[in-house]
Amino acid sequence: MEIIDDYVPVTRAKASLLEIMRRVELSDENIAITKKGVPEAVLMSMRKFKGLLETLELLSDEDTMKSLRDAREGKWIPSSEVLDE
């Protein structure tokens, strides 16, 4: 998975911001804005940004991470063994 789909110089971004925003919205691309050839910022859709924040929140939760590690190690109880109460 490529993290950045395109690189746009800041001067071009300033001149065509609306076009770039539409492109991000329609194609769900991540576009890096460069300054003197160096990526300095990223423009992404709000949907993708919210998903990124949600992922970071889950990864920072110790209980969630413990459950994920347990699942990876096969320590989860099969649903057939769980009793409905």
Structure at a glance:
The termini are far apart.
Structural account:
This protein is of the alpha+beta class and 85 residues long. It has one domain (6-73): YefM-like fold (3-Layer(aba) Sandwich). It is 49% helix and 18% strand. It contains four helices and three strands. The protein has helices at 10-15, 17-27, 46-59, 62-72; strands at 6-9, 31-35, 38-43. Strand 2 and strand 3 (38-43) form a beta hairpin.
| First-last Cα distance | 43 Å
Which sequence of SSEs, written as H and E, runs from N to C? EHHEEHH
**Widest sheet: strand ordering:** 1-2-3
Helix-strand makeup class: alpha+beta
The poorly predicted ranges are none
Named at the architecture level, the CATH assignment is 3-Layer(aba) Sandwich
Say which CATH homologous superfamily is assigned: YefM-like domain
Counting DSSP E segments of at least 2 residues, the number of strands comes to: 3
Approximate helicity band: 40-55%
Keywords, please?
49% helix; YefM-like fold; 3 strands; 85 residues; alpha+beta; elongated
